């Protein structure tokens, strides 16, 4: 991931398994259309500016990082910034010069809403990226209109390009996503055990996958199958 010297000091990194292939989006679903639009953006056949919004756990961070991985696979320079983690830094130090990259991905846009210096810097970044013909992908829990931005010019910029809502998964879809991810890791996770996990832990998909990661390591270390008693013991349920 390309970075400026200031950004390198932040320790911002991408999760290796944050890919489009690992994002549960059944064919024909609204989320499948979102994935297709993000692929087209990176490939240069879609929109220059894309705004994603959705509830916590819908997979916004996963999709932004997946776009970064996909861009890098196509030899594009890209920067991912989780804004909630960098608001204590001067925005000019982080955003200035990003228009020289092929793509910029800003996560958690709500974190800078209402902060005059950040709003002005983001407004300038939008203009710089437009003039340079670069790609911008942003995400927030709210729509562009609902985001509590004070700078009118930035509010108008947020509505450039196209906006997509990322849909959260039903419990049934989370079970399928969990069993699919387990299979990809070489784990045998039957529907009964997957249902037990989904019904008893926080249902945020990131958290569910973290639990699966723990189970994978414990299963390997103890040479045990993923049974309900083993899951109870490992996760302290």
From TrEMBL:
<feature type="domain" description="Hda lid">
    <location>
        <begin position="171"/>
        <end position="235"/>
    </location>
</feature>
<dbReference type="InterPro" id="IPR017788">
    <property type="entry name" value="Hda"/>
</dbReference>
<dbReference type="InterPro" id="IPR027417">
    <property type="entry name" value="P-loop_NTPase"/>
</dbReference>
<keyword id="KW-0235">DNA replication</keyword>
<dbReference type="InterPro" id="IPR020591">
    <property type="entry name" value="Chromosome_initiator_DnaA-like"/>
</dbReference>
<dbReference type="Pfam" id="PF00308">
    <property type="entry name" value="Bac_DnaA"/>
</dbReference>
<protein>
    <submittedName>
        <fullName>DnaA regulatory inactivator Hda</fullName>
    </submittedName>
</protein>
<comment type="similarity">
    <text>Belongs to the DnaA family.</text>
</comment>
<dbReference type="Pfam" id="PF22688">
    <property type="entry name" value="Hda_lid"/>
</dbReference>
<dbReference type="InterPro" id="IPR055199">
    <property type="entry name" value="Hda_lid"/>
</dbReference>
<feature type="domain" description="Chromosomal replication initiator protein DnaA ATPAse">
    <location>
        <begin position="14"/>
        <end position="163"/>
    </location>
</feature>
<dbReference type="InterPro" id="IPR013317">
    <property type="entry name" value="DnaA_dom"/>
</dbReference>
